[in-house]
């Protein structure tokens, strides 16, 4: 099976790894990890960034050249806040590709589906290319796609938990019906989690904490790059069927008699 690039709206990307900018010990470490990841999309929480900072005090100064900024609405609790944040990103010349995130619960950081749908409806009509964060709910995913979102981004587990994919069955249902890219967002803890997401057929994975809080963020970023690539190739190759009993790996016909 021939591979195709990741298509988000009118944009195409060869990397299926999207990486965040939060929780790093310092900007220098962040830049090293971003570079090692090979990612082309880097997500930035506009409500948590000092937009007035200049030079080396600005997060944007440390982003590797050539990376596309994906503004996100982290920290927003209502559709109005999310829409306002996206419009700010456009005013800052960051483009119209946005990650929509409307949090409904401060403990789990699960998204508010109703507010997410309301914001998506407005943003799509306003010309934004919307990538919404949602729980692993096939119904919510279908509704967001029907509204015109360019992808759906179900969580694998709570944000920052590192628990890995908790419900592959719901992801499978989302993948079965989706006509837009499905990108796992949140919950990835290590490289094997990323590989599993791609092996299941997900089109990409977005992560931050798993890399930023690793003992060696740069090394973990490279591990995630390789895991995403390996998982994608395994999906395209098609795994062997699972069997209950052993199956000889070499022919048994023609063996010498005892």
Properties at a glance:
5-stranded parallel beta sheet; 258 residues; single chain; globular; 3-stranded parallel beta sheet; 10 strands; 8 helices; alpha/beta
Describe the structure.
35% of the residues lie in helices and 15% in strands. It has 258 residues and is an alpha/beta fold. The radius of gyration is 20 Å and the shape is globular. The model has no long low-confidence stretch (mean pLDDT 93). Helix 6 links the parallel strand 9 (183-185) and strand 10.
Summarize the structure.
This protein has 258 residues and is α/β, with parallel strands linked by helices. Helix content is 35%, strand content 15%.
What fraction of residues sit in β-strands?
Answer: 15-25%
Average pLDDT metric: 93
Strand order of the biggest β-sheet: 5-4-3-10-9
Strand segment tally:
10
Structural class label: alpha/beta
* Helix content percent band: 25-40%
**First-last Cα distance:** 44 Å
**Low-pLDDT regions:** none
Question: How many separate helices?
Answer: 8
Which outline best applies?
globular
SSE order, as H and E? EEEHEEHEHEHEHEHEHH
Radius of gyration, rounded?
20 Å
| Main sheet summary | 5 strands, parallel
């Amino acid at each position: 099976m021939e591979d195709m690039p990741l298509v988000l709206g009118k944009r195409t990307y060869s990397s299926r790894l999207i990486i965040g900018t939060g929780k790093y010990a310092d900007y220098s470490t962040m830049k090293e990890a971003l570079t090692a990841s090979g990612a082309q999309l880097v997500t930035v929480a506009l409500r948590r960034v000092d937009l007035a900072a200049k030079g080396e005090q600005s997060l944007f100064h440390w982003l590797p050249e050539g990376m596309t900024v994906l503004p996100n609405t982290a920290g927003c609790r209502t559709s109005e806040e999310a829409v306002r944040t996206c419009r700010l990103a456009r005013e800052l010349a960051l483009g119209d590709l946005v990650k929509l995130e409307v949090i409904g619960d401060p403990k789990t950081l699960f998204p508010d589906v109703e507010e997410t749908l309301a914001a998506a409806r407005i943003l799509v009509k306003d010309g934004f290319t919307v990538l919404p964060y949602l729980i692993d709910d096939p119904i919510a995913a279908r509704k967001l796609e029907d509204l015109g979102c360019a992808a759906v981004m179900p969580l694998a587990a709570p944000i920052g938990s590192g628990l890995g994919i908790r419900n592959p069955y719901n992801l499978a249902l989302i993948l079965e019906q989706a006509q837009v890219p499905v990108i796992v967002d949140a919950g990835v803890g290590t490289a094997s989690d990323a590989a599993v997401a791609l092996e299941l057929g997900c089109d990409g994975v977005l992560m931050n904490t798993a890399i930023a809080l690793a003992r060696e963020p740069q090394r973990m970023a490279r591990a995630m790059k390789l895991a995403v690539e390996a998982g994608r190739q395994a999906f395209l190759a098609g795994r062997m069927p699972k069997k209950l009993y052993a199956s000889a790996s070499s022919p048994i016909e023609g063996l010498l008699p005892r």
